[in-house]
């Protein structure tokens, strides 16, 4: 089986800055664009591979009376339109500037388009498209993005397997681009018991020729085990919201990682790389002494006289394993001793005629 990889690095970590920079700008007393650049710098310095944003205009996404579906104690906006309107200030010029800045500092720029206009202008300076879980059944939009002929990260929150397959098929009808199927739970924040990380393995089973990823909305746990487990289960593209201050109120800060969390995750990955080893079962160098000394050999159970025929009652099996293996027992029983063999002696083939 050959799987095309969208990103050469594994795991590939995406920090979704999203719209968190608005709150960072307010806290730091700086402009929105400077806040984004500050966050990009922080993401780059702690080992993130890509930063991601959200490109849209509120009127293209939600009707004015669309209800909220998030934790109102963290985000006070009571309708989707109200929320999106708070965070739709940036357009093509701002994202072009940010894409150029990302190129300068050496980190990949990504932004999820939520309408046709943003899908068009992002094509100028973005190499990989991401499709939101909310657009998984928006087949016309998916086909439009597929027509750009660039790799696609497809988020699958709140989806059935049929809906995911329909979306993938829609892409394949239009293009031969590489697709990564991203496990995601569309709940903000996602409770740990709802993370459903085994779905990563299920997606790998249903989409064996595709990369599998995970977009995480849980609150960062102390040791970053959610993201680490997702990687260990086979998600090679990992995405999580990113902030400079997890205590800020707002739409995404409460379930965002910060630079400290990224460092913990990277250390976990290094440890996994150390302990995972090879999938081919074979003795290791570190086992050579134990293999030799703790395995059993065929040993004389009693004093055996020269000329006696060996029976199974005459032998036993003891350490060390430097003699004849018990697996060779049938090649010993029935042979005639050509020398006297003392009790508790390791048997050797040269002792027999």
Written description of the protein model:
- With 353 residues, the protein is of the alpha/beta class.
- It is 32% helix and 14% strand.
- It folds into two domains: 12-276, Aldolase class I (TIM Barrel, Alpha-Beta Barrel); 285-351, Antifreeze-like/N-acetylneuraminic acid synthase C-terminal domain (Type Iii Antifreeze Protein Isoform Hplc 12, Alpha-Beta Complex), CATH 3.90.1210.10.
- It has helices spanning 21-28, 32-45, 80-86, 92-105, 116-122, 139-146, 161-174, 198-206, 225-232, 259-276, 288-294, and strands spanning 12-16, 50-55, 108-113, 129-131, 152-155, 179-184, 211-216, 237-241, 297-300, 315-318.
- The radius of gyration is 30 Å and the shape is elongated.
Find the structural class using helix and strand composition: alpha/beta
- What are the secondary-structure elements, in order, as H or E? EHHEHHEHEHEHEHEHEHHEE
CATH superfamily heading of the largest domain:
Aldolase class I
Number of strands: 10
Major β-sheet profile: 8 strands, parallel
CATH topology of the largest domain, anyone? Answer: TIM Barrel
Quick structural summary:
By secondary structure, this protein is α/β, with parallel strands linked by helices.
Tag the structure with descriptive keywords.
alpha/beta; TIM Barrel; Type Iii Antifreeze Protein Isoform Hplc 12; two-stranded antiparallel ribbon; 11 helices
